[in-house]
Design a protein that fits this description.
Among the domains are: 240-337, Succinate dehydrogenase/fumarate reductase flavoprotein, catalytic domain (Flavocytochrome C3, Chain A, domain 1); 421-492 and 501-509, Fumarate reductase/succinate dehydrogenase flavoprotein-like, C-terminal domain (Methane Monooxygenase Hydroxylase, Chain G, domain 1, Up-down Bundle), CATH 1.20.58.100. Helix content is 31%, strand content 17%. By secondary structure, the protein is an alpha/beta fold. It is globular. Helix 12 (421-434) runs parallel beside helix 14 (458-472). The chain has 14 helices and 22 strands. It has helices at 26-35, 53-56, 71-81, 88-108, 141-154, 219-227, 256-260, 281-293, 310-313, 315-323, 379-398, 421-434, 441-451, 458-472; strands spanning 12-15, 20-22, 40-43, 61-62, 122-123, 133-134, 159-162, 166-173, 176-184, 187-192, 196-198, 231-232, 237-244, 264-267, 298-301, 333-342, 345-347, 359-361, 366-367, 493-494, 496-497, 508-509.
Length: 514
Amino acid sequence: MTPRAASGTPRRVIQAGGPVIIGAGLAGLSAAVELAPLPCVVLSAGQISTGTSTGWAQGGVSAAVGPDDNAGLHTADTIAAGAGLCDADVVAAITSAAPQAIEWLTAQGAQFDRTADGSLKLGLEGAHSRRRIVHAMGDSTGAELLRTMVVAARRTPSISLWEYSLATEILTTKAGVSGVLVRTAGGEIELRTDTVLLATGGIGGLFSHTTNPLTSRGQGLALAHRAGATLRDIEMVQFHPTALDVGIDPMPLVSEAVRGEGAILIDELGERVIDNPLSARDVVARAEWAALQAGHQVFLDAREHPGVRFDELFASIAATAREAGFDPVTQPLPVRPAAHYHMGGVQVDLAGRTDVPGLYAAGEVASTGLHGANRLASNSLLEAVVCGRWTAQHWHQLGLDQGSAAAAPSGLRPVTPGAPDAAVAKVRGIVSEAAGVLRDRNGLVAALAELKPLRSHDAGLVGYLLVEAALRRTESRGGHTRTDFPKLADPARHLLIPGAGRPRAATEAIGAVA
């Protein structure tokens, strides 16, 4: 029988010829390049090189490569920031792999910033005890890494890049993954494979104030949930304290590295909003939120530090600020917290495996145990490259057949998103109001009722699951603050959401993390 799309028209069936990687950011492309010469297909909902959080990342890659640093210190800082939900073994494994990840990216062509003697120039960011942030072109690290990996992928014959190809469903049988449904402007395609990697990024687009691409709305979480995979700690959202508040959506990010160079946070009266602007991000965001709720404005003051060096260190941020009418050398920049990174995600092990056979996840969409309840700055790009490569190395160990990846269909062009703009806007408003920096039972219960009829599309489903998880976590921990439950619960527990059709899971207790 010929498969048919939901519209009733015949559906094209194509054998992928290898794993299918959904997402063309750092995690997905690292996996694809590492997998060579084994074949794979990489799906990008838009044009390759655009629409990914990787390309927008200003911070850098954290790695203990300085003479006064080591992986143990990096591990300790990560666990301290993670507020009890980190997996210590996972943290140790990923931080130990960081120096080699920098070497691998350099070998792929990444141009990291260096000192006059050729050593890596290292920056400092919040909650790091050492200078260990490796940058590329100042505040354009993400763009440089994405450029590097796109070039590497395009020159690798085993990688088939499909642009404008939107994954809408993970197909499964009792044995596990059997394929991916892909929407293109030319019709629906059933791309058959028994191995799929989700590398779809985060959920910032579900919030009215975000630094993420607006297309980052948790599509990977929706795909995984409907396929039966377990989600973990998805209520844990990191709000970046310094999004440039000039009426732009999404909001331009002012990197934490600016505070690492000495900038401070003040209100309109010139009073400090927080004594230590390099505290963990959740601490800084709550301090700012309190000031805003009290009727104050919040500004990032870089006039003294880094002062006249601002343009040299942060050229991209300086240009954006000036386009908005602010000179960071002479004027404080208006800022506010904005949804920036999702610590929760699809539960995976260090090979990227979910509990659905053949389904993997890497990067921001995954929950490895690295970030816990509050990501340490610049650990995200590190996790993406390390875990993307580890998944590919695992596939090599499985002995996947060598062959040819399915070529991209001809004539691919932009595809219409699945959810109407009005529906997405409604979800953004509801989620932002109820599940922002501060949360409480009344707001979350009301939001669930509003989101329930919107679950038919991805944004509504993920928004509903996030709010439901925030309601279930009756404590304040890391990026999750309940004003009606202001204290930590003991012991620390992961909050699990089973895949669609599976029995409700209890919370998962974890051991105390030193």
